[in-house]
Amino acid sequence: MTEPRSAADRIELTGAQTIRDIETTRRALLEKLEAKAPLEVDLSRVTEADISLVQLLLAAAKSSPTIRLIQPYPEAVQQVLARSGLDAAASIWTKE
Question: pTM of whole model > 0.85?
Fold first, then answer.
């Protein structure tokens, strides 16, 4: 699930990221955020998502201003962002 990188730490989320699966992702994110290093989150291999992923990423961004989501997002993530109304509203989704 995770792969380190030189300048910024990186976590790659894969497969389903729904309420049933999000606890594993939450623990991995917390572990990475404890390092206090910049963090990149790669969502490109997420196949299923729900609002729990959005909530988790927003909470992570609130606790660490150095988190960055790698774009483009897969269809599953785009759909949940559109349904939640956060596709353009939250700064975490639009950071370069």
Answer: no
